[in-house]
Amino acid sequence: MTADESRASKLLESAVVGQRVTRVLIDYSVTLEFADRAPVCRLSFETPFSIVLRDEMETTVTPGQLEGVEADVVRLFEAVVQSVRVDTGGRLVMELEGERRIDAGRHGAYESWSFVDDDGRQVVCLPSGGLAIFGPRATLT
Questions:
Q1: Residue 47, exposed/middle/buried by CB under 10 A (0-12, 13-18, 19+)?
Q2: Based on the number of CB atoms within 10 Å of its own CB, is 91 exposed (0-12), middle (13-18) or buried (19 or more)?
Q3: Average pLDDT score over residue span 92-99
Q4: Overall domain count for the chain
Q5: Is 92 contained in some domain?
Q6: Residue 103: which region, alpha, beta or left (left: phi > 0; alpha: psi -120 to 50)?
Q7: Model pTM score
Q8: Which of 129, 114, 105 lies closest to 48, judged by CA?
Q9: Is residue 91 part of a domain?
Q10: Domain residue limits at 83
Q11: CB 49: neighbour CB atoms within 10 A?
């Protein structure tokens, strides 16, 4: 794990673990909003990602093309985050209550996922799999 992956994991952990998904926004991206406590946080997926149920049923979600998977995305509403990490190559893994997991890897041509909070902290998964980390507390170790 690189230093950026470690910092990104810590930033996301401190922001969303224990939080509930309070809004699901669907358009050409899928955005989860967490507003149980300040600061409000948003996690957006702009390229295909997976929702896995009990390590056996996997649904691939392609933002902007949700036909047939809308219900799986909407069921993320009010889910509580149990853990989150950023693995090698920018892969984001978020464990949710009810034995659900979101798995979002890098995309070779686009920024696949991004996190932002109202304090201005931001993490973006770059096409290379690297991470761009911005904001007032981005240098936390």
A1: buried
A2: middle
A3: 95
A4: 1
A5: yes
A6: beta
A7: 0.91
A8: 105
A9: yes
A10: 3-19+44-109+118-134
A11: 21
